[in-house]
């Protein structure tokens, strides 16, 4: 199995790697797939989109990576359509993330955890779904009594928590230990596969603890602040909150 660095070190943006295998494009308009022996690319999941970036050969030849996806435990890199994949073998390539985009995703993802943490702590509302792009995202909650007034209070509380400069920790726990943590599985339906032996958790120390597979910043100070950009009713009980980072470069 390849070394999937993104789950251990979210700040690794570039790594040397050899090509283990390639696959022809799966369909018209898609690119060839490349499996490296180690990678910094995140394959997408949990509402966080897959990374983009490039693979470079020692001679300077460059392949654009337009996405990544997981097949079993392996992360495959999708090249731009039309590009011939590099040959498998011992040659050493550099795989390199679009770091600006990834860091924005890490900040956005961490902000969404802070939002979940506040909504759970203050209102006991469970998450039913979520999604993000670099710089903004949405979370859906079972939150019958949500209102504009409450959403304003939530925005204030989230920003207070982010500005407390809370550390964000990644842990990998044996299944029994993880399930002994109250409220760890915050989604309405327990999405963790039956057979999974070890569970990765993300903790915003003092605010939020969740089972999670994505990439996050190491301290909430790196997020800055957020603004709530909208909220809507998706039914009597299901409510959606949209937010974005308040960065000027949006
Ligand atoms: Zn997360």
Describe the protein in words.
The strands form 4 sheets. The protein has a 6-stranded antiparallel β-barrel. It has a 4-stranded antiparallel β-sheet with strand order 9-10-15-14, with helices on one face. It is elongated, with a radius of gyration of 19 Å. α1 packs across α2. It has helices at 99-123, 148-163, 175-179; strands spanning 3-4, 14-23, 33-36, 38-39, 53-56, 62-71, 74-79, 89-97, 127-133, 136-142, 168-174, 198-204, 208-211, 226-233, 238-245. The chain contains 3 helices and 15 strands. By secondary structure, the chain is of the alpha+beta class. The mean pLDDT is 92. It binds zinc ion (ZN). Zinc ion is lined by residues 46, 109, 113, 202, 212, 214, 216.
Shape: elongated
Q: Major sheet: size, sense and barrel closure?
A: 6 strands, antiparallel, barrel
Q: What is the residue-averaged pLDDT?
A: 92
Count of helix runs: 3
Structural class: alpha+beta
Strand order of the largest sheet: 2-3-7-6-5-8
**Terminal residue distance:** 38 Å
In the predicted model, the low-confidence regions spanning at least 5 consecutive residues are none
Number of strands: 15
Radius of gyration: 19 Å
Order of helices and strands: EEEEEEEEHEEHEHEEEE
What percentage of residues falls in helices of 4 or more residues? Answer: 10-25%
């Amino acid at each position: 199995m390849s070394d999937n660095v993104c789950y251990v070190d979210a700040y690794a943006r570039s790594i040397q790697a050899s090509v283990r295998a390639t696959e022809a494009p799966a369909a018209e308009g898609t690119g060839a797939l490349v499996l490296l022996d180690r990678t910094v690319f995140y394959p997408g999941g949990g509402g966080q989109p897959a990374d983009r970036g490039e693979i470079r050969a020692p001679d300077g030849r460059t392949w654009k990576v337009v996405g990544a996806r997981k097949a079993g435990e392996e992360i495959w890199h999708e090249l731009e359509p039309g590009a011939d994949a590099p040959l498998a073998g011992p040659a050493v390539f550099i795989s390199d993330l679009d770091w600006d985009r990834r860091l924005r995703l890490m900040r956005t993802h961490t902000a969404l955890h802070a939002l979940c943490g506040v909504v759970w702590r203050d209102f006991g509302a469970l998450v039913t779904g979520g999604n993000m792009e670099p710089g903004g995202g949405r979370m859906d909650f079972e939150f019958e009594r949500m209102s504009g007034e409450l959403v304003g209070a939530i925005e204030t509380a989230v920003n207070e928590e982010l500005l407390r400069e809370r550390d964000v920790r990644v842990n990998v726990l044996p299944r029994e230990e993880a399930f002994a943590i109250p409220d760890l599985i915050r989604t309405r339906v327990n999405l963790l596969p039956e057979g999974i032996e070890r569970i990765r958790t993300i903790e915003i120390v003092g605010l939020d603890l969740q089972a999670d597979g994505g990439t996050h910043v190491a301290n909430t100070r790196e997020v800055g602040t957020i603004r709530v950009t909208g909220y809507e009713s998706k039914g009597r009980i299901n409510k959606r909150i949209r937010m974005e980072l308040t960065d000027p470069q949006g």
